[in-house]
Structures are given as C-alpha cells and as structure tokens.
Amino acid sequence: MISTKQGEFREYGDSTGQRGFEVSDVFQKCYRFLENPYAETDGRTDDRALAEAVYTAISPPANSGPWMEVDGRRILQFGSNDYLGLASHPAVRQRAAEVAAEYGIGLPMGSRLLTGTVAHHLELEDKLARFKQTQAAIVFSAGALAMMGTLAALCGPEDVLFIDEFAHATLKFGARASAATIRVFRHNDANHLETLLQRTQTRGGRVVVVDGVYSMQGDLAPLPDLVDLRRRYGFRLLVDDAHANGVFGPQGRGTPFHFGVQDEVDLHLGTFSKAFGTIGGFVAGPYEVITYLRYHAPTYIFTKALPLVVTEATSVALELLEKADDRRAKLWQNTRHLQQSLRDAGFRLGETQSPITPVLANGTRALYWAYQLREKFGIWGAPAAYPAVKMGTSLLRLVPTALHEPQDIDYLVNSLTAIESSLSLGSLMPVI
Length: 432
Known about the structure:
- The chain is of the alpha/beta class.
- It contains 16 helices and 16 strands.
- The protein has a 7-stranded mixed beta sheet with strand order 6-12-11-10-9-7-8, sandwiched between helices. A 3-stranded antiparallel beta sheet has the order 1-2-3, with no helix packed on it.
- The longest helix is centred in the last third of the chain and has 20 residues, at 325-344.
- Pfam families: Aminotran_1_2.
- GO terms for molecular function: 8-amino-7-oxononanoate synthase activity; pyridoxal phosphate binding.
C-alpha cells in the first residue's frame, strides 16, 4: 500500500505473484476537491473565496418567512420555496405540536411495508388522490425518494426513458437506476423529442419525463405539445410538479390542470418541501400503478415511514393549500411586480413563467450580487454557478412568496440595481 498526498494506492498482483497494475483510491477526488474546492469558478483566488463565503453561509432555523434574523440582524429572505407561506402557518404548526406532544417526532417506527404504515398515511394518500383527481396516491419520505423510486421501479432494460435535459437531478438519478435506455431531448423542444421517438425502436415501453416547472429556469414544460405527441406515439407521460403544486391550476392542482390536460398525464409527482411547507413526496395515478410502486419502489420499501408529525402537518397544509386562492393571488401579484421591476432596471430574466425568478449573469457575477446583497443590504438570495448552470454563466435565483410586501420587492430591486451600478464601475470587486 502506497500513501500519497491525495490518498492511497494499492498494488495488485496476478495469480503467479507478479506485480500487476496499480488501482487508485476512490477518495482521491475528495482530496483534490479540498485542494481546490471551487475549481468551477474562473480560477481566481477571490472567486474561490467568494464562492466559499456564499455557499457556506448558515441559515437560521426560522427561514421560511420574508424576514429572518441572522446573528442579531434582520435579513430579508428571497431564497425560499415556501410559495404560499404555509411553512409557518399557525394551523400547520399547531397540528405538528399536538402530534409531537402525544407521539414524539419519530413515530411510527419501521418502513411502510413492515410496521410503518398508520391510518394517517392512508388518509393523506386519499386526500392527495382527490387533489390530483386520480385513483390513488403513494407518499414517500422525501420528494427525491418519490422521483428516484418511481423511475427505478417502473422502467427496466427493455424500456426507453426520454428526459428533458434540464429535468431535476433526482429524475436523472432515477433514470440511471432503472437500467432503461436514456434519451435526452433539448429543453422544452417537442420537435427534438419527436425526432428521438421516431428514431428509437424498442420492444419495451416508452416514458417521457419532464418537470412541470423547471427549478432554475422557471419556465413550464409544454404539456399540450407533449400530450399531442403522447396521442400519436403512445408513450407514458410523467410530470414532476414539485414547483407547481399550490401555485398553478385551479386550487393549486398543478401544471396539467393549468393546461387542462390532467387526464392525459399518466403519473403526477410532487414534493411537500415547496408550497406545502413540510417534507416528503408523493406520486398520484392509476390504482394498479400505485399499488405496484408500493411493492417495487426501493426508496419506499427500504426507507423509514414519513413521521406522523410531518404526515399530519402536511394533511393540514394540503387543506389550506386548496383553499388558498387569496395567497395564490398575492403570490402572482408579487411575482409580476418583482419581474417587471427587474426588467425595467435592465436585468435579464430568461424565459421564466413562474415565481422562480432567475437573474442571469456572465461569469461569476451572480455570486458577487448575492454576497453584496447579504452583507451590505441584508437580503438573502440563492446564487447558482456551474455545474448547476452552464459554464461561464451564473444566476441569482429569487423567489417571491405570498407573504412579501411591495416595499420588500422595491428594496430588493433598488439594492440589486445599486450593486450592479457599482460593479460596472469596478468599485466592489473583489469583495473578499
């Protein structure tokens, strides 16, 4: 065994005892990362220090509302996905407190197929099926587990998965775990998808997987176009509505309802960690498919059941979400205000069609925006650089909620405008 700065190498020989090849330690990449953890920046020392300052910032526990306190300082929050403000809703918190007082925070113990299923899980699943107007629904302990487990269970080596290039990472992981053939089509390009469908021959099934709302770009999947292709090519259509539930469609039912094509979407996937304000995930669809997932989705079978305290809080949140037309109206009012104000100030927002507001930048400029917003103006946004976005670009992801007020948005836009003006003059670079 040979020790190096990067790790260890093990020497292997053949059956005759002769020295063979050397195999490097899988930990090498970890050591290299610590030597240069922000190699994805343009390589400048100040960029790496800035990235570390931005991405290692510690958020306070109470970070769901428009305002939060960090080290005794009030901070305006625009980095949350708590679209309707339900994470801190008194009714949700009260129900969680009641259940925690009676049962604690960890019960029930066990996985859903063993000792973990309680009546409360089944009641929530019934509510979700009615919410999505499907025959059945299944609840997972996290949104990521719902996405990965569904694809891993449904698809196999003879099947072909067609997936949007910007689909969420959990869908891509699930696709790889399924062992199906994967075909990636250009983002929201139904023509490219059709070309791939025409060129791909298989004895197995064909499945198209998209996000209802794309989490970085903020745009919507062209579901009417995809449904038209579904009618002609006979594939199954799966929609991850993580960022659409509660926001789009009548009663917040999601993008298929927004477009009026809900009956032609085969499976509706979602998470509770956005508009619901809790944690967990679900899949809604035909009874036979949901039952199959209960016995075949590895992330359902081999994971502890969703805690009762979260299950009950989510059930209350779902009831509130369906009735939250006033909050949805306020969310969209704030969204229009923010996006129009940013465009008027000269910022590029891409093709967003949702409250997700990506302010686009070249290089690592968005990291500087985020750092200056937090340190100088007390505003928290969420920057993204490569590999979350294309090399040589970055963005500042801003999300208004139903709880923001017009003056909050004006303060954000004015602050970002001031930072950009100073950056253009070179007075704020470097900032570390």
